[in-house]
Amino acid sequence: MAIEVRIPTILRTYTDGAKAVEGTGANLGELFTDLDARHPGIAERLLEAGELRRFVNVYLNDEDVRFLDGIATEVADGDSITILPAVAGGSR
């Protein structure tokens, strides 16, 4: 088994339109390295200076990884990762 990663619409250009892809790794950092090898350029959109970009939210089985161990959060076969870009805006 592998780790399923759900890809937001804005990043699907890196995955040839796929809504979900599979990857491997012992933690999120390794998983994102694996994803970048399969889908070049995607890690640059997720990480900055080795940490999650400020406006990128990542969930491991519906838990925000910022409240776990961030990029060092351990993952295992069968886990599900959801990547969500933060949305802001509106008017007053």
TrEMBL record:
What SUPFAM superfamilies does its record include?
Answer: MoaD/ThiS
Q: Out of the domains of life, which is the source?
A: Bacteria
What species is this protein from? Kitasatospora camelliae
Q: What is this protein called?
A: MoaD/ThiS family protein
One Pfam family matching this protein: ThiS
Range of residues in the leader sequence: none
